Amino acid sequence: MSNNITEASLEEQLVLLKDWTRRMGVLHEAQILQLKTAPWGYFPTVKSFEVYPDLEKHDILFELKLDGKKPADFKNQCERVDNWIKWLLGDEWIVRVKVLKKQVFRSGPIVRTK
């Protein structure tokens, strides 16, 4: 992996930005763009959504409006989003998903032992 962010691939840049977010306590524009676009692929029945990151609490809230009712594999969809957020921002992040203002999913941080 390159140490120079301008020479790195998109995936490498996002990995470097995860460390930057941990140190600086802010999200980079590329991470914000990911948060605003990637959920369309994770939730195929989503009609619209809002995303609310809380940097102090390491918490991401997705408020979804679905086209119809929740699909049978909705929990798996939420777990995939949780895995993606942990890859994008870090293991300490919690993901919450609300549908019609009701919380339907909440993950926890991953605690690694040394």
Describe the structure.
The protein has 114 residues and is α+β, with helices and mostly antiparallel strands. The chain contains 4 helices and 4 strands, in the order αααββαββ. The chain has helices spanning 10-24, 29-37, 39-42, 74-88; strands spanning 46-54, 59-66, 94-99, 102-106. It has a 4-stranded mixed sheet with strand order 1-2-3-4, covered by helices on one side. α4 (74-88) links the parallel β2 (59-66) and β3 (94-99). The chain is globular. The mean pLDDT is 89.
How many individual domains? Answer: 1
Principal-axes geometry comes out as globular
What is the CATH first-level class name?
Alpha Beta
Total number of beta strands: 4
Examine the secondary-structure arrangement and name the CATH architecture: 2-Layer Sandwich
Largest sheet: 4 strands, mixed
Order of secondary-structure elements: HHHEEHEE
Sheet-strand content, in percent, reads 15-25%
Contiguous runs where pLDDT drops below 50 for at least 5 residues:
none
Overall helicity: 25-40%
Structural class designation: alpha+beta
- Whole-number mean pLDDT: 89
Number of helices: 4
**What integer value in Å does the Rg equal?**
15 Å
The separation of the N and C termini measures 24 Å
Annotated CATH topology: Alpha-Beta Plaits
Strand arrangement within the widest β-sheet reads 1-2-3-4
